[in-house]
Design goal:
The chain contains 13 helices and 24 strands. With 502 residues, it is of the alpha+beta class.
Amino acid sequence: MAGASTVDKCRILILGAGIFGTSTAYHLSLSSDHDPASVIIIDRNAFPPPPASSSKDPPLGASYDINKIVRADYSTPFYMNLAHEAIDAWSAQSLYKAFYHQTGWIMLDEKGSDLAERIRRNFRECGRPDPTKDMSLADVREAWGGVLGAAKMEDFGNAYWNPRAGWAEADKAVEAMLKEAVKKGVKYQQGEAAELLLNDEKNGLKGIELADGRTIEADKIVLATGAWTSSLMSKLEDVLVINDVDRIEQQVKAAGVCVAHYKLNEEEKKIYDQMPVIINGENGEIQPPPPSHYLKFTNGRSFTNTITTRLGRRISVPPTSPQNVVPPALQAETISIIERIMPQMQKSGRENLAMAEIEVKASQWRLVEVGRVVLFNNGPYTGRLATIVEIIDHKRALVDGPSTNEKVPAVPRHAIALANVILTPIVIPKLPRAAGTGAVARAWKKAEVEEKWAESAWAKKREQREKRRGLSDFDRFKVMRLRKQVSISFEDLLTYAAASQS
């Protein structure tokens, strides 16, 4: 291993060997404009990383998963078009196609939801043949060997089938691409980034310092650091005095989901190999088992873990606890979801990798959920409250912000990027999904949202900060004088007390 004083230099430095970093390194290695030997990719995981199904030492990072869904079913046309290109590559290119399984997907959509229709409208308007078709809930129960035969489906109103979707063996695909990049000359180094280093002019980066003391300098630096981005950027943003609205935390947030893996025996795997990807409404999804025999359930709720930096800023970071540390409430909710969609998986004696024999600790996680009250920290509604009424995807939600305070205008119902809000501890209990504005206003008032917010330490601190911002220079002078008077009076009181006791 390199010593603490080692300084490496390269033309392009890529920090992070997940799918974004690995794909960047791989495609640079194919380009005639770049010498692969001038590219270094750094990651905290060893090379090659252990398999994602390793319960002893699973690799860190979202890309190292046993499987990921590959689909063009998006409510945003841009993502749909991008995904069509990705599916073409997965289907045709030899490096990827061995890890791609075009099983199709079935989407179960709740009553009253228009998500499925918005997705299918995009298919009809994207310029490609629409692969989707309606499927009755009765047919869903009987299809694929009856894997959903015992599911409780009273909350679902419809379903549609897309045979062109599927899933990929994520960890193996990333590993294959990374090995190919290294084979072509890209240099892989294991290490954990500690600090981004500014150049002498402080108008750009010159390199990074690793936790073991090594330094790597580069002409260009690519951050593909995923959930660790805010923690890495925060110190640099402090040095450069970046405004809050321009910080990376306002653009991306570290978010996670709870996942359960069930180990199947050989007979069971033959049955579940028939199934497609199953979208369990807003509850999450189920993916077919890869060769490791693990059937994967994902809870649809996402959550953030936040810390306070040295300068008092809240940023989202991955938890420091092991990945299999799950709060008990989230465990119970996840198991409840599984019992409703595939009750047969909870039979006695089955190994449940994610939910059994785990250490339970208190958590700072706040779930992105219907009823969660959010505070806008960017945009025209900065400083106002709203509640989530619908989760659009892992980055966006529909919010509504009624107000009982005449001095604070209401926030109209609209879609927001989760990066522009902060999750508060307040939740409106049992708020129905996609509830109308009138119902939200009644629930908001009943839950005393604004009263609870006003009494919170967080709100009081913000109010005090706003008052300080509004002070004139003369007002600040008067505050300084008053502080001195209080200090003198307190000292005089101590002196008087001491004299009285002698």
